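Annotated sample (chain length 337).
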Amino acid sequence: MRNPIRKVLVSGLAAAAIAVGASAAPSQAAEKFIFAHAMNTDHVFHALSKRFMAELGDKSGVSVKYHPGGDLGDWTSLFEQSMQGVVPMTLTWASSDFDKRLDLIYLGYIVSNWKDAKKLYGPGAGMLGVYNDMLKDLGLHAVGIIPTDFGSVVIRKGVGKLPMNFPADPAGMKIRVPGLSIAVDRFNSFGFAAVPIPLSEVHTALQLGTVDARSFSTAVETYTLRDVLEANILTNDYFEVAFWLVNRKWWNGLPADIRGKLQAAADKTIAWSWEEAERKSDEFLQKARDAGIKVVDLTPAQMNAAKQIVYQKEWPKMEAVVGKDIMDKLRKIVGVK
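Output written by the structure step:
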């Protein structure tokens, strides 16, 4: 998951220089715009970007100036640059530095399986509207939501314990959480002793026994930490997503036919990303098993107990941040009373 720790400002000169390229009058042959993200070409963002441009094709009337690898700024900077209209389109994560309501993205048990995740987060689905209600206040619009994977709990080697009944089983166990109050509160409520630790220090903390477990671990991250782990409990308490963002003013000012072509290409690309994300999740869970990590599911009763803790303790706190209207809409979408 991504946790912004500071607001990255774009210098006036740099912004102006990029803006000239972004806002220059388009040729008669094509609508030109900058499309950027901060990740390298091994990341799924690059595969998505290339697929999107292939979907558009050469005869779409669109000319994309593609910038991968963060050469126009890191992910928080690109979020801000899209707000400003400097970079009209980007793939990035929600930066709650600009609106605390965007912490909604970390809320537990909005979904807990891939079928429900696609139903709620897929192209045109309910959660897209919820986030766009917030993003419009920042001058942004999400054309789609990009899935990553579910976050779960992993146990370091040598612990020899599977805490699956919350909150009784985890008593006395220290768990790494990201530096978010929502994460600290959730895992304390689950019965653990939550310890905020930066992502870069997680491997060492598990290796040295500073913590007994780690939260918010996706399948690929579990596999990456395989040398220090003995088990992965699929709590699926958090679903990580990124946003396909556009500057709202720029988007609404596009000719309708061009906007339609861009949306259609994005929809097709995002539909592919759902198949690819679930496939990758299954692939890396199997790799974890092959590496000797025990991968276990919560029983329906154990999952329900975890959900009830979150719904009763975490969701009311989020309502104080995002407001009753948004939470009522979310409860209706998810089916939580």
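Annotation: The longest strand covers residues 229-247.
Annotation: The domain at 151-238+293-334 is CATH 3.40.190.170 (D-Maltodextrin-Binding Protein; domain 2).
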